[in-house]
Amino acid sequence: MGTKERREREKEEIRQKILDAARELFVQEGYDAVTMRRIADRIEYSATAIYLHFKDKRAVLIALCDEDFLRLARELQKIGRVEDPVERMRQSGRAYIRFALEHPNHYRWMFMTPHPDHGPEESGIRVGNPEEDAWAFLRGTAAEAIDAGLLRPELTDPDLVAQAVWGAVHGVVSLHIAKCNDHWVDWRPPQEVAELLMEAAIRGVLRREA
Amino acid sequence: MGTKERREREKEEIRQKILDAARELFVQEGYDAVTMRRIADRIEYSATAIYLHFKDKRAVLIALCDEDFLRLARELQKIGRVEDPVERMRQSGRAYIRFALEHPNHYRWMFMTPHPDHGPEESGIRVGNPEEDAWAFLRGTAAEAIDAGLLRPELTDPDLVAQAVWGAVHGVVSLHIAKCNDHWVDWRPPQEVAELLMEAAIRGVLRREA
DNA sequence: TGAATTAACTTAACGTCGTTCAGTGAACGG
DNA sequence: CCGTTCACTGAACGACGTTAAGTTAATTCA
């Protein structure tokens, strides 16, 4: 009587096939190439079949990037065991930038594209769990730095600090992704720019000079 | 015998009408609302008429934002007379953020959307002229700060420094534009985040503490 | 076993989009 | 006054996301 279970398993398989096809298109040719019809072609189904597994195209993309939010969180988690919160932040920044440069199309969709009301309810990630939620990891690190008295005394809001740190690395890397083909500017490697900015910001945020 | 001149004048007028209609749609309803057919409706022409004045939709958007690059450059120019380059940079950052928050749709298109090979040749702005080119203004300010010996001695590349500064303000403001509807994060006002980050970065980049 | 139900899937279609092409009619030049 | 040029239009093409109706096969129940 395991027919129901088998059906669910098969349904899950197709769901994953859709996501895999979408990811291939997304990575290789970018957002515009991810078309219901082209996804369907790759998995040898009709375009409308996708609607049996996802509400609409947006849901496909959200599910796709859920997987990548998880991957990002896991990559940050790798360096979660660094003792000094400031050093941990530095290394998180580097990992974040590596992630963005390795998956620019995903990064664009995840962090450079507005998603109307994309609340946690539509996602499978548990908010606040640092193993799944990269933001919780960053915020937690900032809070640790504050609690350990490492930062200047006027810096007491971990959200504010974490958002500033995020803004710094995001700014450098998203500028690079959006405008690296812009010939107005003589671009420097984003890693170098980010290293400079992070180092300066950290120095400016620490309680005393070393 | 001024018929040719009159024709050119009329053509320029329609071009401007197209841009104005496109801007209205863009500001009020965002990128997706800017449709050749909807632009045409507003100016009471057929959609194909637009192609007599612009190569394609992309050209309309580029021309539209050219005007806004100019506006941004002019707003920066207003504070161009601040003596101290560091203070000038601080105020430029604030002006930049104000611009982004006042024109989020334009900002998105200008700085958060990749434009394949958008070189200066397609634009009417003269590269390097700080009155028209905001990037030249920023880079120049960074160069001044370096030349005046205000920055730490290892900072010798004005491009690197200027790109870091740009990255900082861009990061905060673009994160806000892209994700302010994201309920995962308890967002702080972008002005506050940017102020914190800028102040920290500046402090970390100056040669000595005040 | 055979009829009824359910689920997965397809085909056809709608309305939108950017863009192209074959006209049309008025203004212009000789 | 005739031929040309010019701004412009309407219909059309192929793509898009999405919906509705129909088909087919597996499952359930009598």
Explain what the structure shows:
Two copies of one chain form a homodimer. With 210 residues, the first copy, chain A, is mostly helical. In chain A, 64% of the residues lie in helices and 0% in strands. In chain A, helix 4 runs parallel beside helix 7 and helix 4 runs antiparallel to helix 8. Chain A is globular and about 65 Å long. In chain A, 36% of the residues are buried. At the A-B interface, helix 7 and helix 8 of A face helix 7 and helix 8 of B. The structure holds a DNA duplex (30 and 30 nucleotides).
List the helices and strands and how they pair.
The structure is a homodimer of 210-residue chains.
Chain A lengths: L2 H27 L6 H8 L13 H22 L6 H18 L1 H8 L22 H14 L10 H22 L10 H16 L5
Helix pairs in contact in A: 1-2, 1-3, 4-5, 4-6, 4-7, 4-8, 5-7, 6-7, 7-8
Chain B binds a DNA duplex (30 and 30 nucleotides) through helix 1.
Q: What form of chain A results from the Cα inertia axes? A: globular
Low-confidence stretches of chain A: none
Give the H and E element order of chain A: HHHHHHHH
Helical residues, percent of chain A: 55-70%
Oligomer: homodimer
Q: Bin the strand percentage of chain A.
A: under 5%
Largest sheet of chain A: none
If interface size is counted as residues with C-beta under 8 Å from the partner's C-beta, which chains form the largest one? A-B, 54 and 55 residues
Total helices of chain A: the number is 8
| Rg of chain A computed from alpha carbons, rounded to a whole number of angstroms | 20 Å
DSSP strand tally of chain A: 0
Structural class given helices, strands, pairing of chain A? mainly alpha
In whole angstroms, the N-to-C terminal distance of chain A is 69 Å
Could you tell me the mean pLDDT of chain A?
91
